[in-house]
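Long-time lurker. I teach an intro course on protein structure, and each term I like to show students one example going from raw sequence to a predicted 3D structure in token notation. This year I'd like something fresh instead of my usual example. Would anyone be willing to generate the tokens for the chain below so I can use it in lecture? Attribution to the forum is fine with me.
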Amino acid sequence: MEFGLAALASQLVVGLSRAMILFIVCAGLSFVLGVLRVPNVAHGSLYMIGAFSAYGIAMRLFGGSSAGFWLALILAPFVVALVSLIAERALFCHLYEREHLMLLLFTFALMLIFGDLVKIIWGAEYRSVSPPALLRGSVSMFGASIPRYNLFLLIIGPLVAIGLWLFTNKTKIGKISRAAAVDREMVSVIGINVSWVFAAAFVIGCYLAGLGGALVAPTVSVTLGMDHTIIIEAFLIVTIGGLGNMWGALVGSLIFGVTHSFGVLLWPQFAIVFPYAAVVIVLFLRPRGLLKSVW
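-- Reply from a regular --
Happy to contribute to a lecture. Here you go:
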């Protein structure tokens, strides 16, 4: 089967832009896994809240204007961060020493609660967010028409990766978070309030989930249930990348996004199978993930 350069370029950009959304969400999940050892199933619900918050700010408050979109992109992740801070201080901080199965069940219950809250606040109808005028339309590359918004996502993804790397390696709170992930008792002994370190790590991870939701809103229908798909994909990605490894999350996201995109090109009826087949192959060859796990 032959494909033109235009079709290949178009699908590659679509796959990479999808991978950038996945990476932003998975980076937050991986950060929480690495520092707190919490398998947060509710991470997908926070992504959904980010998307609905972006809709509420951009479309309800500002009528779909370009300024409304940019404000939504800034404010929606902070709405998610505030929700996550309340949940962490009220609930999570009392459960960190429990076994993983209990944390898994607890976050699953929290996911159901968040889903009902979203339904109460925004309803069950499908929503959509309009991108700003600057990011509408497309540009021509290799004879293919590439949406400007997809190119925008290709810029945002690497910026988030660099920002998170600088945070974890160059800032004091980032270094303390890494130390707490290795030996939380020792960090506590030297006088650092580990509880608030964990709170900061949890909020940062959830902020990234909200950012991913806000970024994806112009590309998909914002609706109930969008959290279920993303959390399944996110856990698969952090598993093949290496639990708690940010760069592993990036590699896993690229594999997932690009294989699905080319699956659409090669065999559209079964495109969803391609990324899951890639996951099976990776886990068969590297059961502990492509990069080093922090667990």
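Some talking points for your students: Residues 5-223 form one domain. The first helix runs from residue 5 to 36.
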